[in-house]
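Let us work through a complete example step by step.
Step 1: write down the sequence.
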Amino acid sequence: MTVVGVDNLHKQLEDIPNKIISNTGVFPEANHLTIEDKDVIEIVIAPCGMPISYRGVYYYRSGATKQEFRGTALHQFLLKKMGLNWEDIPCDGVTLDDIDDGAIEYFLDHAIGEGRMESESRKSSKEEVLSNLGLIKEGIPTNGAVLLFGKYPQRRFVTSSFKIGRFGADDADLLSQDQIEGNLIQMTDKIMQVLSSKYLIRPIHYEGLQRKEPLEIPEEALREIIFNSIVHKLQVGTWNQMSIYDDHIRLWNEGVLPEDYTVETLMSKHTSKPRNPKMAQVFYRAGFIEAWGRGYEKIMKAFDKANLKRPEFTVEQGGVTATIYREVFMSVRGNAKPIKAEQDTQKTTQKTTQKILDLIAHNPYITRNEMAIECAVTPDAIKLQLKNLKDKGVIRRVGADRGGYWEIIDHSL
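Step 2: predict the structure and record it as tokens.
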């Protein structure tokens, strides 16, 4: 090592620390040393557990390049460095009055029913329940508490809702959409209700004399996929998005896999590493997810039992995508053309209208679900078309919804 020394010692002793402070906010120690009869400045900076910005910008090294930290990645990085998790941060301005009693009771009903909480828990106050779950700090509910049990969590966390869209020929052909809101602990029930009534079909078959109408996709497996999508979502990121097509469903949530984990890791026996551990613990206690990373195994077994193609999971666009194939729907639909009408579509094609009238003429007691299967559309689309026909005076309903029948009034169509 060659010692060069510095000129203008006193000026450098003042300028160098000032530049470090103004650009980084770090206060260095500057010492004057004499080495080989030359003036040398020693800069001493104490180790820091926090990231340091340069002129207000944070950088990280990626291979041989310097990358800038931005947005949610920066937010997550800063929390991690501080030893914090987003779900643990007290939600400013929120009180226990903002926590829904019904959501707490819903959780306790499931947790006690699963044997994962004692029945004595019913006697606990709302504050005690949150405290036992680690979701309250000094009397203030945390972000996780608001998402799980809040009365109106979307007022503070807009992207905590769940988007569903039905597409036709391509991604530009949006036929209908829904946005499910509310607390996360009860959200999957709402999602399943909307999917069952508007987007998915229930083909009818008989086992002996018993009539069966199972959802086209194994219901418990679909719930497990949705639960995982909600629990493992990067909660400061964008919406969970479910896109439904004729032949498949695409469910995407923001948030990459844990470090050193791949999709193959998920498909094998693995340790559960939830992104939001306290929220995951709540879902586990309610019996919604498994604690030992067995969720994907259960999903695959359910599809195997139904003799359906297994879902595929991929990491893309900063998140995880589940692709679920609609083999049952495609089989029922046969060679029909892609659906071009849903609930919000006002056009009723003559072909579908005539099909409905033919079905009623053949069997006045036919149900909406049965019509949907025959016409290869959703029950909700059938409901809309039946309403149009009733409004035009073409048909009428005789008797109650259950036990009644359809009558064609105008035979001119």
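Step 3: interpret the result. The longest strand covers residues 29-35.
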